[in-house]
Amino acid sequence: MTQQPASPDLAPAFAPGGALRASINLGNPILAHRDPASGEPAGVSVDLAREFGRRLGVPVELVPFERAALSVDAVRAERADIGFFAVDPARGEGLRFTAPYVLIEGAYLVPQASPVSENGQVDREGTRISVGAGSAYDLFLTREIREAEIVRLEGAPRALAALRAGEVEVAAGIRQLLEAEAGRAEGGRAEGVRVLPGRFMVIRQAMGVPAGRGAAAQELLASFVEEMKAVGFVADALKRHGVEGAIVAPAG
User: Fold this and answer.
1) What is the structure's pLDDT at 204?
2) Among 59, 94, 177, 222, which residue's CB has the most CB atoms within a 10 Å radius?
3) What is the mean pLDDT of the chain?
4) Cα separation of 39 and 34, whole Å?
5) Per DSSP, what are the bridge partners of residue 209?
6) Using CA atoms, how far apart are residues 24 and 227, in angstroms rounded to an integer?
């Protein structure tokens, strides 16, 4: 990117301590992960954080978390200055979101032998659905599920392990992660789980800022996201990090 730093007069609103603290959710490996060589956070959200810091003319301090709920709490409590979250009404208190920059599908994983063949069959009495506690799909299903039981566990890997272990009948999560789980091979063949067709929700990934930082700061962050979509920064980041399945969100 070649643009000059934007609105440096607002830098104190975003980085009152001198550095922009960016909350990074490693629990969503579609958008953030640890670099295998350095161990440092990398990914689409990291690229956006660094570009925003460059625009403000301040250094960026990455604050990684393993779960979305912890990442959200850090920004809400102003232990971080910006974050990258799925938009959800349950997360609105104390935060202000931009329009989404990426759309990701939420899907279900079931055992190969399960009689369940479509999403509409999941919400039935006696069905247990494992989810990563505090994730976007946990919040969505908490509002939508009427008959099935939601089993909240510490992170997506534990939720998937619960399905493998027969502790639940269904696991909910990001489609790409579930497809990778279904494709894991043992002894030369795929293990016995499958992803249901379609999606039960669209996860709208956005940037967020503490509500107390003011309207001008919120507007600057919102315009930054729109520009990053419009100029191809987000699309290029998805390609650079080998992300498949996620798409750039339309203009907000």
Assistant:
1) 93
2) 177
3) 91
4) 5
5) 96
6) 21
